[in-house]
């Protein structure tokens, strides 16, 4: 299979088109079983939950295309949420608490990036460690408790509607999606990310500071986790240490379903977004149908393995 | 002693379109004979040998071992026929013990309890090592052995597997004189035991000492094959180097300006020490030498890929620090890497993306790429360098080797450098494209750029350069002005003979 | 001129777990000064109990990592196998049958993991990450509120005593002997290290890479089954959320012990030293009244430190561009 970027785009576009079709079919089928979906309310309401996954998946797309992985995003989300809640509880003004949460996300991502770039440890292992580390810090700050008292306006981002029925966070997701689509497909950073994922040696020989790029993308992902953390805390109006459980799984599954090879070098924002949509509407559909939330774990795990299997097993050498 | 143990008939190997790595090579190996296989870098020695030990399958031709024609599908296949390859660098398992390495992949006998019975194998190993004249504690991990001893273990493994043909690639590269003597002793002993060798080396002295006959390859073809007594050193060099003049080199008279790059006492690890050289504007300076001489490492150090341990670099007489590739590019240095496919290009990327990879900043504002400008530039470069074979939006893997190389050249100079280091710029390139690349190089020099041309093709170096440095084992061993150019002399200095 | 490598001192100092062992003794010394009830028999017994379960699985995951792969599904698999053990034990009243069932369960999932990771061409991180959640989800779904309680006789593997020593220690010893045997008396044992250390040469020599790697996963799965019998025996009861996050302790034990995450290098004993380190540190936290959620923090920190050292060591050794 010829793997030029344009044709990768074409393949992914093909793939993206396929995904688009799958999504439409899925929505039609689900609407039949669950009439609620057939209304705009239903369609949009379900989107509240997945916006957080979607936002982080944007960063995860960049990470996976570069040949890396980030297992710590769920734990970092908890850390962000806890930072917001407990600093507010400690007396910080709300806006400062939100800023603190954002900062926590950025610092966490930067930490990942620096260890990966400087110590040359595989991202898998580093983020496995920070997966535990961040979660641990989150628990340490929250001491197992939770904060649920926030100013009313804080709930805007997570719970309110814009233009009647569009959830506020969906807007943010849309904007971020466009930004990241631009970054990946229209900037030099995006080019470098594809290059690193395809051939690190050539990229280094071409004068690109691979380490710096890695630090950027993990930090960017951390920033996105910060944003998602704010939205999450606003939505459930609670900050506690066990937020974001299984989040990393959902993000990776979405990116892989969207067409990115787990080994790096290919992938698109559009594909990832469709992956997010398909997976989460599926999960949501199950929930609605009365299936317990634990099905989510099984479904996402299955799709993750199946997604990569399809990408890898059928690839011609 | 006169039985023929192996015959290579008209072995040819092509990779892709027109690029043949070797063509119609014939080889006859007698029982208990050592064939010295010599030739410049890229002459086709490793390709021929890889066909013999099963890593490649020849595009045409046949291999006959002990009167039977064979077709090897893998190194394991060839090992079962008694053909063993001992590479230049250790290819065993440092974490396993010596005896485990010896018998890796084979069934280990068990004693009555059911444990591995290493004792039984110890006897076998003892015997083999005695023949080699060494003894080791078998239960020591391989990583604790010296390079020479590890090589002996590799030889021992071949012997335990009843090797009849042992191919050795630069076996003495990392060895001391004493250790080399030891290896030769062993080879001579094994010859008496009817083991045959193909011995690849650039060290012509050693070839004359250990080989019974010598086979010379050049440009992928067999030049001559004869008893070693029929050669003198200088004749041998001539065969390796001399070429029919059907190559079109291209040099115009150019103006040489002031000194632009100078390195003094530059050293890096074990790769090169105390290197002094200088380049002038508009000059093409050749850097000759063998593999392992340290030329690529030197180039990469100047380009910022490696951090030099001592020495200074001057540009336009001003001392500078190069700590990264970015620094080097900023100072106007560019480097075209030796390995086009793994270091120079990203094969799945389009021609466009490849050509602008180093210089994308020229087309961006605040990070945003101006595709229009980019395509304009690539179109212009493609025309200038006559890159043909596919649309610029196609993957670069679709191009022929020569056109790929031209893309690489275009990429290298896209950063608008003043000092251009080219590492084997015409390797694996067909004659037509070679000529075009020579013209490009000449043009670059005429524009006032300084060019350092690293090449193992002596004719190329001699025809294109204004001055030639020769490197040998990490040091600059000679500098030749244009009126002193002499192929045999340069080859001899490269081989360390002079 | 036979250089005797038997010199015990040389052997001792070149083993990867030696620095960790030294550090461990040092740590025990420090902790015992600051924490009063650390060196009591009861406390040490408690540490050993935890360490045994971690070690059994870590010894198996160690082999997976030798082969340059990874298995992070062990926490969920441990819980699933424990449930299988519990259910079978309660049904049949026999602990040995339950053990068999648990082993079988682990074996099957290990085989599945291994097959997908090798012949299926799906990277092991994805397979085992996916399985981590699929198994946990499956467990939660099928046993939402259930708490299994075991009576004494069925807790044999965790609570029993033979000749004064806990059965669990015997279990660990069996596993140690098993892996010692595998590594030094089977081709498989040598091959997995070869494959992880120099995959290219392994291919050239013709070693059966897929088969060997797959078997390492079968090992880690089966050992989850074995450890489950001990685990449930010790705890006495279990619910579907049991052993969440356990896989981190296992990985920490392996990398802290000195096995290189890149593969091809390590010792068979080091995971136990690593497990001891993990056990001691976590115990020290508990004794000092540090809340349990700090556990994760500490585990993560330990893993990061261990792999950073390993990464740094490799960076220093590889001078190549």
Task: Describe the structure using short key phrases.
heterotrimer; A: mainly alpha; ABC transporter involved in vitamin B12 uptake, BtuC; two-stranded antiparallel ribbon; two-stranded antiparallel sheet; 14 helices; 74% helix; globular; disordered N terminus; C: 321 residues
* Pattern of helices and strands of chain C: HHHHHHEHEEHHHHEHHH
Assembly annotation? heterotrimer
CATH superfamily of one domain in chain C: ABC transporter involved in vitamin B12 uptake, BtuC
SS class of chain C: mainly alpha
At the fold tier of CATH, the topology name of one domain in chain C is: ABC transporter involved in vitamin B12 uptake, BtuC
Q: Indicate the proportion of strand residues of chain C.
A: under 5%
The largest sheet of chain C has its strands arranged as 1-4
Mean pLDDT of chain C: 86
Principal-axes geometry of chain C comes out as: globular
SSE class of chain B: alpha/beta
Q: Total strand count of chain B, please? A: 22
Helix content of chain C: over 70%
Main pleated-sheet profile of chain B: 6 strands, mixed
Q: How confident overall, as mean pLDDT of chain B?
A: 87
Question: How many whole angstroms does the radius of gyration of chain B measure?
Answer: 25 Å
Low-confidence stretches of chain C: none
CATH architecture grouping of one domain in chain C? Orthogonal Bundle
Topology of this protein?
The complex is a heterotrimer of chains A (317), B (498) and C (321).
Chain A lengths: L4 H29 L6 H6 L1 H19 L7 H17 L4 H26 L3 H20 L3 E2 L8 H4 L1 E2 L3 E2 H19 L1 H11 L1 H6 L4 H27 L2 E2 L6 H11 L11 H20 L5 H20 L4
Chain B lengths: L3 E12 L3 E12 L3 E5 L6 H8 L7 E6 L2 E3 L4 H6 L2 E4 L11 H5 L15 H15 L14 H14 L4 E5 L7 H16 L3 E5 L3 H7 L2 E6 L2 E7 L5 H9 L17 E10 L3 E9 L3 E6 L5 H8 L7 E6 L2 E3 L4 H6 L2 E4 L3 H5 L6 H5 L8 E2 L2 E2 L1 H14 L16 H13 L5 E5 L7 H16 L3 E5 L3 H7 L2 E6 L2 E7 L5 H9 L3
Chain C lengths: L7 H6 L4 H17 L6 H26 L7 H19 L2 H24 L5 H19 L4 E3 L6 H4 L1 E2 L2 E2 H19 L1 H11 L1 H7 L3 H27 L1 E3 L6 H12 L12 H18 L6 H24 L4
Antiparallel strand pairs in C: 1-4, 2-3
């Amino acid at each position: 299979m010829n793997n030029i970027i344009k044709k990768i785009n074409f393949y992914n576009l093909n793939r993206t088109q396929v995904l688009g079709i799958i999504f439409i079919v899925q929505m039609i089928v689900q609407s039949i079983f669950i009439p609620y979906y057939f209304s705009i309310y239903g369609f949009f309401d379900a989107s509240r939950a997945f916006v957080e996954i979607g936002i982080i998946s944007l960063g995860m797309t960049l990470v996976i295309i570069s040949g890396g992985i980030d297992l710590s995003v769920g734990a970092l989300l908890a850390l962000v949420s806890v930072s917001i809640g407990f600093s507010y509880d400690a007396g910080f003004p709300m806006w400062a608490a939100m800023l603190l949460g954002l900062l926590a996300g950025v610092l966490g991502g930067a930490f990942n990036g620096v260890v990966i770039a400087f110590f040359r440890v595989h991202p898998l292992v580093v983020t496995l460690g920070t997966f535990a580390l961040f979660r641990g810090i989150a628990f340490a700050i929250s001491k197992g408790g939770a904060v649920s008292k926030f100013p009313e306006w804080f709930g805007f981002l997570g719970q309110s509607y814009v233009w009647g029925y569009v959830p506020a966070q969906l807007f943010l997701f849309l904007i971020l999606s466009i930004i990241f689509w631009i970054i990946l497909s229209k900037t030099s950073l995006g080019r470098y990310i594809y290059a690193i994922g395809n051939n690190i040696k050539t990229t280094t020989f071409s004068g690109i500071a691979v380490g710096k790029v890695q630090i950027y993308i993990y930090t960017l992902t951390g920033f996105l986790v910060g944003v998602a953390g704010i939205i999450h805390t606003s939505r459930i109006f609670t900050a506690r240490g066990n937020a974001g459980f299984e989040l990393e799984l959902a993000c990776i599954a979405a990116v892989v379903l969207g067409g990115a090879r787990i080994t790096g070098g290919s992938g698109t924002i559009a594909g990832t977004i469709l992956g997010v949509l398909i997976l989460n509407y599926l999960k949501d559909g199950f929930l609605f149908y009365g299936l317990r939330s634990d099905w989510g774990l099984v479904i996402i795990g299955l799709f993750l393995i199946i997604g990569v299997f399809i990408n890898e097993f059928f690839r011609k050498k | 002693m006169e039985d023929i143990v192996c015959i290579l008939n008209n072995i040819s190997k092509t990779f892709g379109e027109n690029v043949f790595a070797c063509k119609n090579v014939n080889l006859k190996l007698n029982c208990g004979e050592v064939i010295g296989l010599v030739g410049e870098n890229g002459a086709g020695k490793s390709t021929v040998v890889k066909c013999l030990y099963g890593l490649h399958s020849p595009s045409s031709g046949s291999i006959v071992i002990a009167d039977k024609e064979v077709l090897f599908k893998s190194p394991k296949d060839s090992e079962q026929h008694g053909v063993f390859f001992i590479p230049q660098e250790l290819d065993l398992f440092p974490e396993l013990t010596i005896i485990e390495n010896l018998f890796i992949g084979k069934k280990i006998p068990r004693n009555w309890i059911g444990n591995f019975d290493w004792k039984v194998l110890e006897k076998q190993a003892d015997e083999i090592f005695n023949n080699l004249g060494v003894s080791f504690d078998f239960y020591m991990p391989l990583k604790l052995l010296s390079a020479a001893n590890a090589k002996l273990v590799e030889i021992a493994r071949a012997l335990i597997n009843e090797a009849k043909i042992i191919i050795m690639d630069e076996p003495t590269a990392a060895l001391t004189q004493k250790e080399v003597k030891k290896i030769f002793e062993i080879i001579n002993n094994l010859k008496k035991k009817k083991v045959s060798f193909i011995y690849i080396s650039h060290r012509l002295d050693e070839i004359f000492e250990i080989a019974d006959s010598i086979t010379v390859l050049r440009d992928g073809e067999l030049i001559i094959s004869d008893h070693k007594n029929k050669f003198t050193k200088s004749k041998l060099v001539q065969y390796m180097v001399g070429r029919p003049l059907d190559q079109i080199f291209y040099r115009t008279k150019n103006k040489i300006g002031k000194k632009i790059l100078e390195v003094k006492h530059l050293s890096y690890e074990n790769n090169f020490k105390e290197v002094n050289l200088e380049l002038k504007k508009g000059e093409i300076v050749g850097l000759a030498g063998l593999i392992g001489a340290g030329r690529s490492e030197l180039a990469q150090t100047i380009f910022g890929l490696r951090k030099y341990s001592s020495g200074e670099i001057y540009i336009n007489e001003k001392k500078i620090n190069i700590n990264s590739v970015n620094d080097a590019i900023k100072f106007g240095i560019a480097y075209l890497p030796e390995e086009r496919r793994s270091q120079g290009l990203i094969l799945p990327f389009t021609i466009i993306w490849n050509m602008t990879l180093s210089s994308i900043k020229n087309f961006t504002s605040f990070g945003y790429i101006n595709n229009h400008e980019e395509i304009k530039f690539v179109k212009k470069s493609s025309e200038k360098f006559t890159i043909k074979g596919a649309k610029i939006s196609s993957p670069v893997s679709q191009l022929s080797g020569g056109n790929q190389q031209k893309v690489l050249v275009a990429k290298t100079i896209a950063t608008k450098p003043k000092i251009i280091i080219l590492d084997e710029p015409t390797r694996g390139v067909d004659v037509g494209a070679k000529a075009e690349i020579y013209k490009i190089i000449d043009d670059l020099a005429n524009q006032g750029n300084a060019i350092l041309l690293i090449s193992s093709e002596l004719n190329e170096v001699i025809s294109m350069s204004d001055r030639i440095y020769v490197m040998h084992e990490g040091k600059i061993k000679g500098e030749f002005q244009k009126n002193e150019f002499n192929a045999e002399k340069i080859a001899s200095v490269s081989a360390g003979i002079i | 001129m036979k250089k005797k490598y038997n010199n015990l001192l040389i052997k001792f100092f070149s083993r990867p777990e030696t620095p960790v062992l030294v550090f461990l003794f040092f740590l025990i010394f420090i902790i015992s000064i600051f924490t009063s009830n650390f060196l009591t028999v009861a406390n040490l017994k408690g540490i050993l109990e935890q360490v045994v379960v971690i070690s059994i699985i870590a010894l198996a995951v160690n082999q997976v990592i030798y082969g340059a792969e990874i298995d992070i599904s062990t926490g969920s698999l441990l819980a699933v196998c424990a449930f299988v053990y519990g259910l079978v034990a309660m049904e049949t009243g026999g602990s040995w049958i339950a053990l068999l069932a648990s082993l079988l369960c682990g074996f099957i999932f290990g085989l599945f993991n291994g097959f997908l990771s090798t012949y299926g061409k799906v990277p092991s991180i994805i397979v085992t990450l996916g399985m981590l959640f699929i198994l946990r989800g499956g467990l939660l779904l099928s046993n939402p509120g259930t708490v299994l309680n075991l009576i004494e006789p069925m807790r044999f593997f965790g609570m029993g005593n033979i000749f004064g020593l806990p059965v669990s220690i015997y279990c660990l010893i069996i596993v140690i002997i098993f892996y010692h045997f595998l590594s030094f008396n089977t081709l498989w044992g040598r091959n997995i290290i070869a494959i992880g250390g120099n995959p290219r040469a392994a291919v050239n020599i013709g070693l059966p890479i897929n088969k060997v790697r797959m078997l390492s996963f079968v090992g880690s799965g089966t050992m989850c089954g074995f450890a489950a019998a001990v685990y449930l025996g010790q705890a006495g009861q279990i619910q579907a959320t049991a052993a969440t996050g356990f896989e981190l302790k296992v990985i920490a034990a392996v990398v802290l012990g000195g096995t290189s995450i890149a593969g091809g290098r390590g010792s068979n004993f080091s995971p136990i030293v690593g497990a001891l380190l993990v056990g001691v540190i976590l115990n020290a936290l508990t004794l000092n009244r540090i809340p349990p959620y700090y556990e994760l923090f500490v585990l993560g920190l330990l893993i990061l430190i261990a792999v950073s050292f390993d990464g740094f060591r490799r960076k220093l050794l590889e001078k190549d561009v």
